[in-house]
Amino acid sequence: LKHKSGKGVLPETFYAESVMYIIKGCYAAHVGSSFSVYGENLLMLIQNIAIIFLLWHFDSSTALSHKLLVTTIVGLLLGYLYTDSGVPDSVWTVLINIQLLFLAYSRLPQIIHNHKTKATGHLSLGTFGLNCFGNCSRLLTVLVEVKDVYYIITSVSSSLLNGIICFQIYMYKNKKSAPKCAQNEQGVQGSPEEEVVEKADDC
Shortest CA distance to 69 belongs to which of 22, 108, 12, 26? Predict the structure, then answer.
């Protein structure tokens, strides 16, 4: 909101993370876990949806059909799993086992992108810091109240990957993209006066 831009933020990571939160939250409700176990997943889902809509708002190049497709998939998945009406155990087994794939897709592309560019754009240390803190808090709750190995592994992995992004934001916070004038140094050279004017315009 501060920068009115989503530069450096990959929307796909939030799509995958939203799906992961739906699966984790609905699965915990399905097996009868307390709201303290799965409630935060639903709250994080709401936060993600808000971030996605902000990214769409600040990026006018996102097609309407793309927005409708993502909204429809997330809405149908949430409605189908949360109501838990007629969802066979085999589907729950598949979904809970592929959580790590959604988790990896929700964080690894952003981590790789940050590493390649040596910058994190407008990623918020506060947002990911809270995510990391929330993951660690939820991990403690899961370890005490849940004995599901896959749920524990997902919580540990989520805390680790969010921690890596927080570290990248801190490390790259003062790194900025090279100015355009540095990219135009190998152009056609004219007189010294013309070069000074051209570089001033580019910068």
Answer: 12
